[in-house]
Design a protein that fits this description.
- The structure is a single chain.
- The chain is α+β, with helices and mostly antiparallel strands.
- The protein is built from 9 helices and 24 strands.
- It has helices at residues 2-27, 138-147, 185-204, 275-285, 335-354, 379-386, 423-427, 448-451, 501-516, and strands at residues 38-40, 48-56, 64-66, 81-83, 113-120, 125-131, 156-161, 207-216, 225-226, 237-244, 250-257, 287-289, 292-295, 301-306, 313-314, 321-322, 329-330, 358-360, 365-375, 399-409, 412-416, 420-421, 456-460, 469-470.
- Strands 2, 5, 6, 7, 8, 10, 11, 14 and 18 form a 9-stranded mixed sheet that branches. Strands 1-19-20-21-23 form a 5-stranded mixed sheet, with helices on one face.
- Strand 16 and strand 17 (329-330) form a beta hairpin.
- The longest helix has 26 residues, at 2-27.
Length: 518
Amino acid sequence: MKKFFKIFGILLLLALVSFSFWSYSNMKDRHLGYSVDLNIRNDSPSELKAGFAAVPITPEVPDRWVDKNDDGKYNPKDGDSFTDGNGNGKFDKVWIAGFSNNKPANGVHDDTWARTMVIDDGKTRLAIVILDVIGFMHDDVVDVRKMLLEDLGLTYTIIASTHTHEGPDLMGLWGKHPLKSGVDKAYLQFVKEQTAKSVEAAVNNLRPARLEISQDLTGAIPQVKDTRMPEVFDSGLRFIKAIDKEYGTTLGSLLAWGNHPETLWSGNLLVSSDFPHFFREGVEKGLFNGDSLVKPGIGGTAVYLNGAIGGLMTTHPSYPIIDPFTGEELFEPTFEKTAAQGNQLALLALDAMENPSEVIEKAGISLVVRTLKLPIKNTLFKLGTALGVIDRGTAGWMQMRTELAVFKLGPVSFVTVPGEIYPEIINGGVEAPEGNDFEIEPLEVPPVREMMPGKYKFVIGLANDEIGYIIPKSQWDTKAPFTYGREKAPYGEVNSLGPETAPILHRNLLEMLEELGE
């Protein structure tokens, strides 16, 4: 018996040592010592150049599977089956991210993209890349930056996500089950390579340009629902249209709005960029009612970026969208409803662009960038990182490296946020409801947009990272009694790094905006 316990103890010790090394490998800093900290000031009006590119990142989904009970999940016990088309039973899974585990894609509806805008004032060259993915974490952003050649002349590269809930898992959270990563490393590498190609192509497409700025701050309000009190939105539409100074043609456009691209909801099994697909297509190619052109497009490459979508901002199946051509009220989460939403947004954008509020012929780019370390307080995030389900390393003991940037170009300013920030932090309206866990007054004041310089203020959400929800500390709510009379804890905190995230990011953003100046 003693011999048995001795052998058992040795095996247990070996197992613990092996697990410790494996966890360390998952959690080790993948870019040791990496930091980007910039402070560039240029108030001298300069000639501008702009370049655009769109490179597909659509995954291959060669196989099909039969979902016997239409539950959107693969389960042989339900009679579900799959094939490679030759009856071989081979199934190369692409796990759709955003709602639940065990959702293999069953085809592709529309291409997903790495779309890039590069802007250059002769001194500073910025690249803004937007990916049709659920999230692209900081380690992966740094990987792409290291792929970019020095002769591209880039000062700073921003890589953000649309946060589509209808594309492949690139974060690890939506595999076959909660303890199995859904990331296909070969596909992730493909996305990185295509992203680098998109940046390179946009640089090669640089042309002398003028920028036309327009916005519609109210027209899109009926298309988004706030599912958590207090009701605060980031529903304003903001646009930049770049015109070739020599030829007068459209080089491309930047389209900004804050909403979860999940209008297709959880039952969809086709890879798609959701409503941004129809939004961009409408702006570029025009809007058609059947075969009839309703509104001509502007051409060029449209780049859609998301804003403050925490809270959460969504087009829930309970929320209707009006088809702009038929007037029909659409509730069911279908491609018809999603197209109607994209078409509505495109109509609003094209109308606004017909009469730009401002034309920028010359401007200088001022830029402030900070690298930060945020504490990981979420137990599930700690466990997921240790087990390698969340596909990123740490930067110190239970700390996550991330990044903030603020920049301005004439009357236009930008703030980048590394996750899904609650709109009240951006636009105002942070509350301290009775029952909040810390019994404190709001900390994230004044609102970020109030401190941003210029007339036109863009927020790029999920930029250079995806750290989850960024929740005002005075609204943090995991313990009973719950705020606003709820019977259970609200959604959000379970997908947040912790209650200190918002105060840290807010404080740094205000300091950086002060450095940026008026």
